Amino acid sequence: MNRKDASVWNKGDTIYKKGDPPEYAYLVVSGLVEFFGEDGVALGQAGPDEVFGEISSYLNRNHSVTAKAKTYLVAKKIFKKELEKIIRKTHPVIMGMLRSTYHRLADSNLKSQDYVKEINKYNLMFEKSKEDSENLKNRIDSIKEKLDKVNIDNSTSKKNDL
Q: Which of 11, 24, 54, 88 is the most exposed place for a label (fewest CB within 10 A)?
């Protein structure tokens, strides 16, 4: 592997962000890369001998996830032209399998992001509910105090009448 074909990232480094245009696909030589969707939700990871960024690179579409080095990471850059040559040589059955896997992966990522949005929505509702409950408790306590004061005033008034 040529040094110019390899990239190195330290733990936590961003390789690419969601929405970035693809420059390469990458073959992991050592280390781990982790993928994140919206709101920073972890969607998966890739390790040695696994490729990432290939879908965006092959389809020339902006990245659908953010990729970050989970550990110290070394990866070989796979230039678009090289990826195209590899794909052209691939058996049609394998390409069909890859296409269906890509679609399932994209659907899974979207569902995960939808679930996160739903969790966030319910979490906000729960927090609002706690806040509303506290406000209601404070109102009840205030009414109790007023009732206690009225009862004390009535009690004092009755004693004075005697």
A: 88
